[in-house]
Amino acid sequence: MPGDLSTGVKVHRIIGRGLHTGYLAPATCAMQKLCQQPWRRRRAVLFLDPYGMQVEWSTVEAIAATKAIDLWLLFPLGIGVNPLLTRSAEIPEAWRHRLDLLLGTTEWFDEFYRVEGQADRASNRASSLGSRSLESWRV
Length: 139
Hints:
alpha+beta; 139 residues; elongated; 4 strands; two-stranded antiparallel sheet
């Protein structure tokens, strides 16, 4: 099956006694289409290693809805999410939209940038560690 390796999904199928490999592209469309097939009498293990943040949460939901595919997702935390999260919380709208699609919600912002209770946690850490500086615990 032809496909663009940079945006495709590598698919292995066992047919008879042989393992067949192909590429489906683009990844999100291919996975959505694959998940719409009847899964009542099938099982699968899916190793999903997206390039950056190319897989949307709706794809993960479609995989879960099959109730037949076990998913191993290599989540793009270091190369995808972390560089977009600024200390100032001033995130460009395009970045926020991409994070919304990846995480499946807009609530991530409030969770990642929660202010309440941070001072309490820092003072509890400092008091439990004695003379250690609060500066060493800044996140």
